[in-house]
Amino acid sequence: MASIANLLVLKVTSAQSVNVNVCRDYTRVVAYFPEGTSCMDGHFPNQENLDDHGIGENIQDFLLEHCCSFGGGERIYEDDQIFRQLRSFTGMSAAEFDNQYSSSQKALFWLTKEDTYPDLIQYTRIVQRFSLASIYFGFNGDNDWIECSRSTHENCSVEGKTARLSGEQECNWAYLSCDRNSFVTEINMSE
Questions:
Q1: At what angle do helices 126-138 and 81-90 cross, to 10 degrees?
Q2: Burial class for 83, CB neighbours closer than 10 Å (0-12, 13-18, 19+)
Q3: Residue 17 pLDDT > 70, yes or no?
Q4: Distance (Å, whole) CA 21 – CA 77
Q5: Confidence check: pLDDT of 176 > 90
Q6: Nearest-10 Cα torsion for 49, 53, 55, 56
């Protein structure tokens, strides 16, 4: 079994990739280690941690699969059309999406991996959709919203509206008002 020092060599090698990308550690790492062990430097799990949690992998395989620092994790590359379009419209660099706990990275991964809106690549208001998703994640919508979040979509009592981050056009999402051109003019979450 390779040591952590050997894995660090892999980290340096993988960082020399010519393809710019944004990486997110798999969320199951956090689920496995809620007390704080993560893929961040200084917090890497060790073999004893894996054994204690009943994870049937050796530490090298686990890190290689799940941790961005070792070449694992879920990635969005610069040639992804949605990512390229967002960067072009917003002027944001790939580095600005590096923090996997930021609302902008969560919004980016939602747009590129989970959003079901048809033909997002041709969508002219993708920055609006991204911005609203960033706000949703910034306010911890998945966990703190009682209704009209994507995790509580059945409890959306706003008449004629759908939950946030649904596959609908944003103007159909709860708490939003739009003009006749489908640009958001107001966010009203007074309750």
A1: 90
A2: buried
A3: no
A4: 4
A5: yes
A6: 90
Beta-carbon-side half-sphere exposure of residue 69 (alpha carbons within 13 Å): 18
Q: Is 106 helix (H, G, I), strand (E, B) or coil?
A: helix
Q: Give the model confidence (pLDDT) of 35-79 as tens digits.
A: 777 887 778 888 998 898 888 889 999 999 888 888 889 999 989
Q: In the structure encoding, which two tokens stand for residue 185, read together?
A: 């003019």
Task: Write out the two tokens for 77.
Answer: 């590359």
Looking up tokens 């990512």, which residue turns up? 83
